[in-house]
Specification:
By secondary structure, the protein is mainly alpha-helical. It is built from 19 helices and 10 strands. 50% of the residues are buried.
Length: 470
């Protein structure tokens, strides 16, 4: 059994009736909840509903919010790690760096995470009804989720609207006016700092103090604030998490001691399952072959992956010339000793890992290195070697920035990290230009940001402006 259930049966009818417009294309921050969130029990359902928003819906309805279930297209397929099997449809726009403003997956993700922000704002708006005993923790958790959502949006889209409260339907200026990245980051830092100060140990599938510290550290790394990042990572490294001895168990022994934040799914349930695991396979999901392994990623794994390689990709059993992702397999693999997570792979139960301890260790190396090209700092080297030793790779006495980027690639392949890593390390344009040229794709510098969805621009009646190049 999962430790979180996102359907609160007792109060479901009340909640749905007051929030039935969650998926409407109208400004989502204007929904009234005057008759809800009046006590701790109801506010707790709002807290869980934030995570439900990140979880997304397992459906084929293009009007639904699928949230993190489509994130791999905007990150892994949108770099040199992933590709589609057939190079067709809207999904192929990502691998070819030809994403249209009308792309449905871009619109889905953008709307989904503003919906998550709205759900967080609902909780924050009603903190006055919380008990004194729980008010601070509710605020911390809501601000963690909001900060996390904005961090994803600002890295993918650049300047975005800043909606930090419930707004009225006619307040289109707030809803659609793009705010400079530095102001978005100010809110993210403020929110995650509140989360660090107000959260405790947490429970599986929900935010904890250490999770907030690590996410905030990644924010600071993105901004080049290495000392601030390192301070947070030192604390996170002392929080009780550790590496799983067996790399396979990170993904197939859910709730393990390495996972610091995961989005929880239940297999064979229509409401709490996911379909992306099946979409990564061949003729298993509703759509298939949507996150196959590029030749470049496969070569990197063979050269530097060690024993991670077998549980990162496998040969497509139906097409021996192609490689599939071996993380999050929904229907099992006898040869790899992987059990199915559901009877129906389209209703997969594989949890999605947002953050794990290996990331904290390698971020610590990054923070220690700072603006230098290498480090031989003993603590950083030891952290780096912990990750390499588990992979049965040789230990080192010093680390270059390129070696760190390479290690992150093979450790976190197909975990939606690569695109963000390339940008944070300042090499995205160089790496993706070369990758694009080698494969006949169309990458340009403006592709470092995705287009603002045309749907949103249309709704804004010209208030919302498009990114350059689109």
């Amino acid at each position: 059994m999962k430790q979180i259930k996102f359907l609160i049966i007792l109060l479901l009818g009340v909640f749905v009736s007051s929030c039935s417009d969650f998926l409407s294309p109208e400004p989502i921050s204007a929904i009234s909840t005057d008759n809800y969130y009046k006590n701790d029990i109801e506010i707790e359902t709002g807290i869980l509903n934030m995570y439900n928003g990140i979880q997304g819906l397992n459906s084929t309805d293009t009007d639904d919010n699928h949230a993190i279930q489509v994130e791999y297209l905007l990150t892994e397929v949108y770099c040199d790690n992933g590709k589609t099997k057939s190079s067709e449809g809207e999904q192929a726009q990502f691998e070819e760096f030809k994403v249209s403003p009308s792309n449905g997956y871009v619109s889905d993700y953008y709307g989904s995470f503003y919906n998550v922000i709205y759900r967080s704002n609902l909780v924050l708006e009603n903190l006055g009804n919380a008990s004194d005993a729980n008010k601070a923790s509710y605020e911390a958790e809501a601000k963690f989720v909001r900060g996390y959502a904005y961090f994803n949006l600002v890295r993918l889209f650049g300047d975005v609207p800043l909606v930090d409260k419930i707004i009225q339907p006619l307040d289109t200026e707030t809803q659609f006016t793009r705010v400079a990245e530095d102001q978005i980051y100010e809110l993210i830092i403020s929110d995650l700092t509140t989360a660090v100060n107000g959260l405790g140990a947490g429970t599986y599938g929900r935010a904890s103090k250490a999770t907030a510290q690590a996410i905030l550290a990644k924010v600071y790394l993105t901004l080049g604030e290495y000392t601030l990042a390192k301070e947070l990572l030192v604390d996170a490294m002392a929080s009780g998490y550790s590496l799983e001895p067996n790399f396979k168990d990170v993904f197939y022994n859910e709730g393990n001691k390495e996972v610091m934040f995961a989005i929880v799914y239940d297999g064979d349930t229509s409401n709490d399952s996911q379909n992306f695991s099946a979409e990564w396979q061949n003729a298993v999901g509703r759509s298939t072959g949507l996150n196959y392994v590029t030749d470049e990623a496969a070569a990197a794994m063979l050269a530097m992956g060690g024993n991670r390689t077998a549980y990162t990709y496998r040969v497509d059993p139906k097409n021996l010339n192609l490689n599939q992702v071996a993380k999050y397999i929904p229907n099992g693999d006898t040869a790899l000793g992987i059990e199915p997570t559901s009877i129906n792979p389209v209703l997969a139960g594989n949890d999605w890992i947002v953050l794990r301890y290996a990331d904290v260790l390698l971020m610590y190396v990054e923070a220690t290195m700072g603006t230098a090209d290498a480090t031989s700092d003993i603590t950083a080297v030891n952290a780096f070697n912990l990750v390499r030793s588990r992979a049965n790779m040789p230990t080192v006495n010093s680390i270059t920035k390129q070696e760190l980027l390479d290690e992150r690639r093979v450790e976190f392949a197909f975990e939606n990290q690569r695109f963000f890593d390339l940008k944070r390390f300042g090499v995205a344009q160089q790496v993706l230009s070369q990758y694009s040229a080698d494969n006949g794709y169309g990458f340009t510098a403006t592709d470092l940001l995705l287009p603002i969805p045309q749907l949103e621009i249309g709704l804004s009646k010209g208030v919302l402006k498009q990114n350059p190049g689109y």
